[in-house]
Amino acid sequence: MTASRAWRVRPRLRPRELGLLIVVAATLFCGWVSLASTEAGELALGEPVVLLVYLGLLALLHFSFVLAGRRMDEVLLPAVGLLGGLSLLLMARLPQGLVVQSFAGRELGLGPLQLLWLSVALVLLGTLAIVVRSDGWLRYYKYSWAAAGVALLLMVFVLGEETNGARLSVSLGPLTGQPSELLKIILVVFLAGYLADNRPLLARTSTNLGPIALPPVPYLLPMVAMWGIALSIVIVQRDLGAALLFFSVFLSLLYIATQRVSFVILGVLLFLAGGAVLYNLFDHVQDRVDIWLDPFADAQDTGFQLVRALYAFGRGGILGTGLGAGLPSVGNNLAIPLLHTDFAFASLAEELGLLGGLAILALYLVIAQRGLRIAASAADDFRGLLAAGLTLVIVIQAAIIIGGNAKLVPLTGITLPFVSYGGSSLIANAIIVGLLLALSDQGVEPPPPRRASRRERASDRARQIGGRIEEALS
Amino acid sequence: MDGFTLTLWVLRLAFLALIYLFLFFLARALWRDLRASAASAVRSLGRLVVLVSPEGQPPEGASIPLDAVNTLGRDVNNSIVVEDQFASSEHAVLTFRGRAWYVEDRGSTNGTWLNGEAVGSAAPLGFGDEIQVGQVRFRLDRPLTESA
């Protein structure tokens, strides 16, 4: 957008979003009172400032969207807002000393810290949704983004510090972050660009391997490279969750772009083969699978986490124990180790019961539906693939960790989007939703016309010369 | 059961009920949205935008809605008539087969080109791809839908 063009501000009311946000506010307020009363033993409000700040931020976002006047999706913000609010309710009731960081001389406990990260994330979400008007900065620099992603990955390999048995965190000065959270966005940007450009070539079959039709061999290389990256993440970083997430998102996007089931089958076979080899070579992979198959075999040690999570689901029953009345903490110890990050779903399911757990699943389904709708009505392949990929990152991540909590799939340590404690995760997911909102605007700049390839231009010229010769001869 | 415990349970159940009320509103919003977009959906499967047309038939910039089978060529019986000296009378056919578009050359003199490569038997193509028939260049685009 050129600087000379005036920024047209024509407010556009968003009644649906406003209505939904009011219900979210009422819900969270009710939950807050229920939590504070349970903790105090009498009707109480606790410290409503935390909740009010959060609700105020949601309202601020809504009104800035109204002022920005874009035709954006009106359902995503309330859905994400409720998930973030549930996270705030959970973090406020856990032992506050679990995570302590000091900012400007003030020590902040778990609840206020999560509020701080949620605020940063929401502001980022709103800024992206309002400011991003063109996708050129993502579309044209896909290889630069890929290079940045690989650099990030190498940085983790070299500088990474171990947290909970996985090399995830990187400290830069006072800041500590988990780059794999950003990596997943970069991966989607690169894949969307690559697949949108090479889609017709990938969909063409030239090699046949028995019943499986393969694309031309050079175009298979990125697929093999992705597989290698996923495996190296497992080996070097010991981060099974990220590897699983990256590979699932990659296969889904490949399927969306080419509509070929054979690629998915091939990818799953590759994954199974890699998984089998890793299972036999590496202890931490073997441990995870063994715990999943029978957590009670070593219930006091390796299986402890999962056994406790299963007990939590059981204690919750259908209606739950009520906020604040569950057993996530015994004294100052967590009943489930890592409850605030990996097992957020188990503890919410304990306090809100089967009904609450199903409601959380439904919220992720709503995000999936909105995101895929945005993808389906996108103006061109790049935007469609980008929107679909970003949506899938959130939904697949939620599915992997919820499945892990419930002993449906082997447990892998990744966060539950918008609910788990953690700055990197919240910010990465906020970037995703911000981009989705920006992509959902029907009035954005139309995608640029396809640039003719060099070969195409050459053949054009050749044909024109041929035409002239033909004319001269006839 | 004393009054406080009762109040607490009412609060807890109200919290769950409100979450489900929210989900109900969400579901209603999504349902209305889907209905609205289904009502405004255009029957066309895609459209062909004319990028370059030196002889003006079809006119440059035109957007032609497509059916499941579209024939291109100089003959007047084609569904898309291409008046171009380098186009054959029965030049190419563009078909939608279930879930993907295919373009096929019908033995034309100068060939049909997809993104700069000659098309032999049916070649798959997607939205955004360019087809050349004679000197006329088309781009396959998504069907227009009303924004919901």
Please state the average pLDDT score of chain A: 83
Radius of gyration of chain A: 25 Å
Across the major sheet of chain A, the strand order is: 3-4-5
Counted by DSSP, the helix tally of chain A is: 16
User: Which regions of chain A are unreliable across 5 or more consecutive residues at pLDDT < 50?
Assistant: none
The major pleated sheet of chain A works out as:
3 strands, antiparallel
- What structural class do helix, strand and pairing data of chain B support? alpha+beta
Oligomer: heterodimer
Number of strands of chain A: 9
The total of helices of chain B stands at 1
Terminal CA distance of chain A reads: 51 Å
Radius of gyration of chain B (CA) equals: 26 Å
Secondary-structure element order of chain B, N to C: HEEEEEEEEEEE
Strand percentage of chain B lies at: 25-35%
- Give the biggest beta sheet of chain B: 6 strands, antiparallel
Order of helices and strands of chain A: HHHEEHHHEEEHEEHHHHHEEHHHH
Percent range for helical residues of chain B? 25-40%
Tell me, what's the shape of chain A? globular
